[in-house]
Design a protein that fits this description.
single chain, mainly beta, seven-stranded mixed sheet, four-stranded antiparallel sheet, globular
């Protein structure tokens, strides 16, 4: 089993920055691709950014140039640096990990609120 715990969510003004962290524990050798998703009230959960074991990244068009995903394999932690935040970035942000040999897991989510 793998457990994911997110942290770093907060209330911030538009234009500000936040860094989210996702710490993995348990069977971390099974960690494969990892990513950040978000879900705003009344909307579907959407992919924000992902990173492979090799460090290749992918971003949603809405966050390109503002968000950066990174991975510290030694700490089994994935980060999401969010700059130039906008009110439309307000959502619960979830960490996700694909697992080698199948399956995936989710964190409990962390709230990000951007005020205008």
């Amino acid at each position: 089993q793998v457990q994911l715990v997110e942290s770093g969510g907060s209330l911030v003004q538009a234009g500000g920055s936040l860094r989210l962290s996702c710490a993995a524990s348990g069977s971390i050798v099974r960690l494969n691709n990892m990513g950040w998703y978000r879900q705003a009230p009344g909307k579907q959960r959407e992919l924000v950014a992902s990173i492979t074991r090799g460090g290749r990244t992918n971003y949603a068009d809405s966050v390109k140039g503002r968000f950066t995903i990174s991975r510290d394999s030694a700490k089994s932690t994935v980060y999401l640096q969010m700059n130039s935040l906008k009110p439309e970035d307000t959502a619960v942000y979830y960490c996700n990990a694909d697992l080698i040999f199948g399956g995936d897991c989710w964190g409990q989510g962390t709230q990000v609120t951007v005020s205008s």
